[in-house]
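Known limitations

Files may contain more than one protein. Parsers should not assume a single record per file. Below, a two-record file is shown to illustrate correct handling: read the sequence, read the token line, then continue until end of file.
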Amino acid sequence: MKRLWVLTVLFIFSCSAFAQTSEHEQNLSTCLQGYPALCEHSRLTPSEASRVAEAEHEQNLSTCLQGYPALCEHSRLTPSEASRVAEAEHEQNLSTCLQGYPALCEHSRLTPSEASRVAEAEHEQNLSTCLQGYPALCEHSRLTPSEASRVAEAEHEQNLSTCLQGYSALCDHSRLTPSEASKVDAGARASTAGPLLVPGVAENGSYYGEPNANGVPKTVRVNGYYRKDGTYVRGHYRSAPGTNPPRVRKPH
């Protein structure tokens, strides 16, 4: 009986020691994987604490280089690392500016040549926005006379397409020519005999709320229009400008 009792005590002690070892290894793993809020640094041995400090330093550097300035602890960087991070953040800001996110672009951080490139990109983005049928987002004052003429023509064609497709509430009849008004009236009279339009579905088959390649829902309808070269672009749905996330610059 005494032997059995001794074996039981030894078994319990072994289980307790194993559990403590497992907890210690789990804590070390948590620390090394970059979860400082969950890491119990006080339970680490001196050599483990050194390993964890190095891992946390590398994790912070990686976070800084990947373009997360709000999460980057700049005070923990060495001078050479700070230089690399500053360069990465500069390139990330330039990329954001060039991709058409003026609200996120820090223009004050651009060099004169970069500012020139960004201004040109923003001008082209505004022109594209105007031509694609976003009059509320189009800054007409930034268009050149020839661009304004192209936009006016595109808006006219988009309005005509809207009218012909039977969206009377969105059709601006005052912008139609007499012959266009006649075509719209004839189409309205014949609509009962023709196929019904499916609400929320555009000419090319895209539909309201359909996710794009980035997972952002398409909520803005673009009516069919003719490009300058005469090709016709079918009506479609697309995501609103500025809703797609900027690309995160990958560290070298």
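...continuing to the second record:
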Amino acid sequence: MNPRPPRLLVLAALAIAALTLGTGCSNKTAAERDSLAKQNRDLQSQLDEERAARAAAESRANAVTESATAAPTTQAAAPSMEETTGGVATAEPGTIGTGITTGVNAHGENTITVSSDILFDTGKAALKPAAKKALDKVAVILKKEYPGRELRIEGYTDPRPVRTSGWDDNWDLGAARARSVLLYLQSKGIHNMYIASFGDTKAVGMGGTTSTKKGKKSTPSTGGYAADRKVEIVVVKNGM
């Protein structure tokens, strides 16, 4: 018998099986490729929609901004504090607590003035208990409005003699009071300070009158004395 015909049949069967398998793999690969292509098209469509929505939102926002910019103003803008004081921010003058006022001195420097009557007893330089509450308010303002700025603590007195209180003169008392304020503010985290004393050299309380048997004479007024007694915290102009 001849064995070749069965071998040929086996080879033919293997060839047919291989062809069938190859066709199946090819069809599966094509299907996967089509699926990926469809997913890509869907993602691209979503991206295009998101871009269009973003562009529309930006267009609306720009329109609102342009409208607000173009709207006419009914009042001229007030100059900034820096513009009115040559680059130094100025606290608006006013009262911020009992015996505490803010303002600007003759040199254009911002000031916080604290009456000595709430800081010290007569002829004394030690802070009273109530003084610490007042200086706590001052410390808050200095930290908020003038962080890191150079400060000058100025002491002022009325013109009455102070030798009976143990001081050499009013300059001595003014300097001691300024130093007490400096040390307390320092304990509250305020730094970059120095003191100055004007004593009674700038006292203004000299215009009052009193009645006597011989008529009227000029004497320092009590109200004027109170105005003279103060400690002034000055934000040094152009200071570091």
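Parsers that stop after the first record will miss the second one. For reference, the second record is described as follows. The two ends are 118 Å apart (CA to CA).
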